[in-house]
Amino acid sequence: MRAIIQRVTKASVTVGEEQVSSIGQGICVLLGISADDTQRDAEYMVRKILNLRLFEDESGRAWAKSVMDRELEVLCVSQFTLQCILKGNKPDFHAAMPAELAQPFYSSILESMRSAYRPELIKDGKFGASMQVNIQNDGPVTVELTSPAAPTDSKQLSKLEKQQLRKEKTRSKGSSESGREKSSLRSRPDPSASSGAEGDVSSDREP
Q1: 133, 77 contact by CB (below 8 A)
Q2: Dihedrals φ, ψ of 16, to 5°?
Q3: Contact at 8 Å (CB) between 74 and 123?
Q4: Per the record, which residues fall in region Disordered (predicted)?
Q5: How far is CA 80 from the centre of its chain?
């Protein structure tokens, strides 16, 4: 799961001509759910989003208070394009969770936020709609979050990920072989060098 979190002075979501939600000072969260995300990812994101220290404290000390500490608002917007994988210059969204699964999963994340914080301060866009999101970034302050990856299972790796792994192994193997060749060259005797047994050529110089 990926999230883009922006500290804002105000933000709003409009669908068509209707403004469906708006907040004042707080944070706007663009949230992208992947096909492999679990409840563990959701819990991690909720905890981090609500506890990120993006605000000043009463004495003006930066990065000291979270949105909960300051009792500010949160606007959360579902953003499947954060799970984009580029194929050349074309975005591919197969890594995103299908809409029929993502909608209840996303709703459960919102409910978790409301349970952990104050329900009236958690606002939402409109899932699946074409939205206009107006964000007045404060700072600007923008933080990217990614939930911890699960243990790698080769069967679940995408074709692109497998290709990347092969490239990394090839580069690593090439570097190792190059190192062995250099070591072999260093240890190979140089026929033009003095062995010491034939005497030091420097002693044959004319006075």
Answers
A1: yes
A2: 65, -120
A3: yes
A4: 142-207
A5: 14
Distances (CA, A) of 22 to 10, 13, 54, 141, 142: 7, 6, 20, 19, 19
The token duo for 174 is 């090439």
Per DSSP, the chain holds a count of helices (H) and strands (E) of 4, 10
The 3-state DSSP class for residue 150 equals coil
d(CA 57, CA 63): 8
Q: Model's pTM, two decimal places?
A: 0.71
pLDDT band at 127 (very low <50, low <70, confident <90, very high): very high
Residue 193 CA to residue 178 CA, distance in Å, equals: 25
* Angstrom distance (rounded) from CA 93 to CA 29: 20
Buried b vs exposed e over 157-169: b needs ≥16 C-beta within 10 Å? Answer: eeeeeeeeeeeee
Inter-residue contact 123 to 76 (CB < 8 Å): yes
Buried b (16+ CB within 10 A) or exposed e, 113-139: bbeebeeebbbbbbbeeebeeebeebe
Sign of the torsion angle spanned by Cα atoms 163, 164, 165, 171: positive
Residue in the block written with tokens 């933080």:
143
Q: Is the pLDDT of residue 193 over 50?
A: no
Residue 19 has pLDDT above 90, yes or no: yes
Q: 13 in helix, strand or coil?
A: strand
